[in-house]
Amino acid sequence: MRLFFVCAAAMTVAMVSAGCNSNTPTTPTAPEVVTTTETFSGSININGGATHTFFTTATGTVTATLTVLDPAETGTIGLSMGTWNGVSCAIVIASDKAVLTQVVTGTVSTTAGSLCIRVYDTGSVIGPTNYEVQVVHP
Question: Which of 31, 59, 79, 80 is the Cys-Cys partner for 98 at CB 3.0 to 4.6 Å?
């Protein structure tokens, strides 16, 4: 009887231990991408434009949103995104008829890089026009 009790206790300990040591594989979770929000503002004139540069530190999605366009009668302006080579903005994505709240979206495929936003007149600017663009990037 005593031997049976010892064996039963040993089996119970073995079963409890087996439950704690699961061989079920776990899927690693990707690290959360930290984003930065930058706001660029200025004024453009008839036939004018302005370029703003920023730096990304990881791959991921970049969005640029036109948050201010004043005077509102301007209607549309150009809003583009591209790569910055230290001298000029090589446009990759453009909206030549951007309206207030317009979003331009791109994807960064390298871990770090210099990008740019360009705001410009496409024939609708009738005088000094104030703008603000909010950029969210990794």
Answer: 79
Instruction: Tell me how far apart the alpha carbons of residues 100 and 3 are, in angstroms, rounded to a whole number.
Output: 83
- The single residue listed with the structure tokens 């995104």 is 81
pLDDT tens string 66-123: 999 999 889 999 999 999 999 999 999 999 999 999 999 999 998 889 999 999 999 9
Per the CB < 8 A criterion, the answer to whether 104 and 81 are in contact is yes
Output the pTM of the full model: 0.76
123 sits in which H/E element: none
Least confident of 14-18, 40-44, 107-111, 134-138: 14-18
119's tokens: 């705001």
- Pairing relationship of beta strands 36-44 and 129-137 according to DSSP bridges: antiparallel
* Domains of the chain, each with CATH number or no CATH: 36-137 (2.60.120.380)
Burial of 60 (0-12, 13-18, 19+ CB in 10 A): middle
